[in-house]
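just leaving the lab so this will be short. below you get a single protein, a line of residues and a line of whole numbers that encode the local backbone shape. id like you to explain what the token line says about the fold, in plain words if possible. thanks a lot i owe you, the record is right below:

…
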Amino acid sequence: MKWRLFIAVCVLTLLSPVLTAFAQQPYTRYCHDPAKDFFKGSIAYGDDNKPWIEVKVDPDFETKFKAERHITGDLLLTPVYDLVVRIKPEFKYYCIPGWVEGKEVAEADLPKTIEVSGYVTVGTKDNVVVGPGTFTRTEKQDEKKRFIYEWKIKGWPSGIATRERFSRLISGVVANEPIFISLEIVKSSGAVARERSDISFDLCVPISGQGRHRVVGLYDIGSDADTAVSYFDDIRKTGFSVIEPYRSHQSYFSYFVDLKRVSGNASNEVGPRIIAAIQKAGLSKATPKIQGNIIAPYFRGSSCSDGTFLLRTKGDERVLYSLPSVGLVGIATYESTVARGALIDSGNQQRTEKHGISNIGLISVHEFSHAFAGLDDEYVTHNDAPSEYGLLLRNCSKTPLVDFSYEGKRYGGADYEGCTFFTSHYRSSESSLMGNSALEFNVVSCGWILAAIKGGDAKSHFPECAKMGGVIKDGVQASAFYPLFALLERAFAYPQEQKQTAAVGASGISGRKEYIIVENFDPNNRWGRIVEVVPDTNSPSTSTTVPSANASDELVQTENIFDTVSIDVKVNGSDGPVEVQKGGRIVVSWISEGASRCRAMWSKNDIAKSGTIAGRLSKTGSFSIRAACIDAEGNRADDSVVVNVRDLSDLN
């Protein structure tokens, strides 16, 4: 028995080294240099039998970007966002000290980085535009508990590559060249293995907003792709986000930048083409149609399918100076049915800011408003107005008291002559953003912009604009004397139920429609009111006048016996204030002395030097009925009567 135990001990002693070797962990048997042996030198494949390489917008960037810029939904994969490339390296887990089959691997068990370099390549020759990049361990795992490594690529806002390489990437996408994420994998032997996966970039980059009106920034060969996003984002921040009414209606807009470069140089090409078209048509100025036909083709073929386009261009300033009627920094289409947009020359860009508005932001909003809302320039660009020009006549008007009024109230002046054309065209304020000396739109232009934004009649938005901060109110309140009443050319197009009328009979009407612009003294409602003059069958059919001197009264005919001009106005025989019932009849009479001409608020023409009219007022309120006369030397006399129109219930 003892000899058997002795033999067993000897055998164990002899086999001890072998058994010890078998008992050693794989870590010591196969991982002599864990830094090299741990990583297999390969990455996991997907179910499609292709290397699992995922490219996404960086989730951290996406969450913050969407929150700050009010964008919903997933961001498209564009080469200006921050990106992340993900892979699943394969490891020899048994190289982990103390590892046994079935033991869960912790993040800390894996190396922080691996011998894999990442690149973004273009074309069949794999032109490198981004990289090399390093993949770093994350805590993320797939369903098989395989850890994911990431390579983060900074993109916003200048792009994921340097200027020349970024341009190469964009041109490759436009030309439909293959774009790859390419990997170089270093094996433990020192050999290099390569894997790659194709990717697809979208070149229409959302930069802010989710509204239905799309503002799209473009650029041509005068600019570079890596500055496109920051340039147009600056226009958004220092233009649209600051200037009313765009500022308070940003929820209606979304902003994009097209990274696809527009072919040609619009700044150098548009001017000569427009000049040639003007000369061919025998005109002295480009019509909206000429401008649209020449500018719109630059917007076709954009990666952003639709919208109002702003094309950034930069060219030889001498070419633009040769077209002074277009201007140095911008030219736009006027609601072109082909494509809407504007050309913005950045060669003369200034960064001086007033109230947060940059020069380029101001210019861009100005030009955009031509294309988007059909607004006209409110400065003078030409002396005459040929009929073939086709002016839209929105914020410029030949009949300002008609076009700048709504529901009996005026929302703009009528004596600011010069609006695109010098004569016979009027703007509603002395200055405005559509002119050349203000940072704000006036009420009338604001109304047309809101109509383009929200729909409806532009005039219906005048009241909203009049209450809005950051909008010029020049000419909004009624004025007692308006020097341009003769501009009333046509009937006011108000809904019948909203029309305020006064029934008046006088021989001077002769079938014409005339209007009284009356002043409201109600402290809670200081708007002026427009009262239409209509015949009253119960009123006198003729005016009464002071009899003129007989021919034999030579002294009276040749000499003025009055030292000054005078006029006396009465309502119902009273100097006022006069109280009348709503719908009640009034008689306005006046008599002047020493006058050569007289004007009154109820006529667009000179009135008789003395006379009478009668009528009825259908609206309540306090009104001033005024008239004025001048003599041959220009001396002036005025008189007025306040009329308070009340409801019957108010009088009882």
Observations:
- Residues 15-24, 318-328, 478-563 have pLDDT under 50 and may be disordered.
- The chain has four domains: 34-201, 205-374, 382-476, 496-651.
- Residues 2-23 form the longest helix (22 residues).
- Residues 598 and 629 are 4 Å apart (CA to CA).
